[in-house]
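Session log. Operator J.P. requested a structure for one protein chain; no other inputs attached. Running the standard single-chain path with token output.
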Amino acid sequence: MGDNLSKKAAIQSAQLQQLLSISNVSLVASILIATILAYMQREVIPSKVLLPWYSFMVLATFLRASQIITYQRHSVDDDEAIRVRLVRFRLIILVASLVWGSAGFLLFPANDPQHQVFLILMLAGMTVGGVVSFSADLVSAIVFSVLLIAPVTIRLFVSRDSLLVATGLATMLYLCFMLMSLVRINRSIYDNFTLRLEAIEREGRYRLLLNYSPVGIFHYDINLLITYCNDRFAEILHNSIDRLVGLDMKTLKDQIFISAMKKVLVGNIGHYEGNYQATYSDANKWIDMTCASSRNEDGNIFGGIAIVQDITERKKSEEKINSLAFYDTLTFLPNRQLLMDRLDLAESASARSGRDGALLLIDLDNFKTLNDTLGHHVGDLLLQQVALRLASCVREADTVARLGGDEFVVMLENLSELNLEAAAQTETVGEKILASLSQPYQLETHAYHGTASIGATLFNGHQQTTDELMKQADIAMYQAKKGGRNALRFFDPQMQASITGRVALENELRKALEKQQFHLYYQIQVDSLHRSLGAEALIRWIHPLRGMISPAQFIPLAEETGLILPIGQWVLDTACAQIKAWQKNAYTRDLVLAVNVSAKQFRQADFVAQVQDTVQRHAIDPKLLKLELTEGMLLEDIEDTITIMNALNEAGMKFSLDDFGTGYSSLQYLKRLPLDQLKIDQSFVRDIAGDSSDRAIVHTIIAMAQILGLNVIAEGVETEEQRQLLLDRGCTHYQGYLFSKPVPLDEFEALLKQS
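Structure written below.
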């Protein structure tokens, strides 16, 4: 049936289909009943009447059969053709009903009550059959029923026999009852046709809505198999409906949205918004999907329906809007608003972690002159190149922003917890930025050299507002401008002075080795009888202008910068050379010289080889070299420590554990180390006379060493009382000001002669 039928034609088409669907059965029944009737009435009706009637009946049946076959084989789909077919069907029914109705006159025997009753019953039965067969069309059913039963009713009325007249009256009442029933049946069928057509129409509209919907729609069953999808869904996925229907969603490589689909199978609403990459096509889109349950008539869930929207363009628009709102359109760096948001978050993160952050305000020097001479478009090119250089100078987690004009901001996060170290880290980045920005620029055909001034300030938590931090950085930046430009200045003057001093010290420290400004001082180590056992070699920096610089000042800096490695090697070389010199003298050839080893030096991959090479190069007795390690070094990687110490011990070197008692040495590891000596830290020796706790600790260390078979030496011994207390507890080796402070070599050798 076509989509252009009117409602009336659609109902007529449904009537025809209903009439034709049962016509085959009614035709067979009709010809059988006619045959039975003709056969039974042959005894009371002349052949010349009976045979013509039966012939007309066969002809009418043939006409109906021909019409049914034609209609079933050739369908029509326009209003007029359907109306014509229904009219022709009614005409054939009219012919058939006239033939059947004529039996009421032609086959009615005058004086045979039994055959009369038989005829009446057969015609009544045919009336019922007609009502059932033709009830879909009220006209056909009424015509058939009235024309079939009316003639016999009239024949009964005109017989003048009271019984036959009564029978005629009953037949009339029967006809009226049948017609009333027919009207109700026809109304019910008509309503059914109407409802069915409306349902088909609604389904058609629904399918039309689905197929031409601007959103993708698909149905799926409880096994997550797609049972239907519309054109838009296939279009979104760059696929075809044929390939999508029947697809098992569990086989897709991108399963991120499956949880939303499963929610509806337990009665919930499912939703997913995000990126989706198709498995069987090149589609890679942002989608918004909402899923709901599909239920049957009993309310049981048999699957779900999903509505999918392609929001890729919306996302692109949002990103564009976001970019316009939070990013500089020239450099694509974060703008002031986004910087302030990130700065606020950075302060919160700093408050939680305890680590400092830093803000660097960068202003290009003489930028206005460039704009005025070469034009704003050239100035824009410079700003774009500056943005790229700034980004290359910082970590990915840091922020580079443009405030406007020629002002940029760099925000550093997760710096050291110590202000001085955080400032040093900030300065390193600042110097890197200054160096990068001072490199030549190629601006179209123009070569340009520029510099920048940087103001820096540190922050920790929310101690200052974001506006205050920006103001501090601005003040520091103008200080850099005043100082001659192309410079970095910190907001805190004291910190600036400290950093300047630290930088100067680092530069001078690098030159100290070349200029032989380092010297070894020696502090004597003696036994209980004040006999010399050896010494500890301690480095001293004699600066030509600053004089003696304390190791507490330069050793941490050397550790941080890595200069401790060449310095440590120099100490080792100098110590071995001195041992070699002492070996030539009978009075000093047995002296053991202790050398401190830094953690970085000890952890070098070739540390063992370095020590062995140095000992062999100076041709000294390795047992006269004692390497002092701290407890902290042992804890870092105990297995690696044991391996290194064993290798050196096998080569003859000795080990002393310095500052013992201040760390967290485990006895389990201590007994595995090839130690020769434990050195009691001076912090315990200092108060041994007045502090019972220190005395107990010292006593424990000495007892532990005796159990492990180790020698014990106490450092920081300054009074005879301290020495005596140590001696009473079993410690017989000492080092400290009681015997001598660290002194130069000539003073140390003079001290040896005195003792």
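Operator note: Residues 515-754 form a domain with the TIM Barrel fold (CATH 3.20.20.450).
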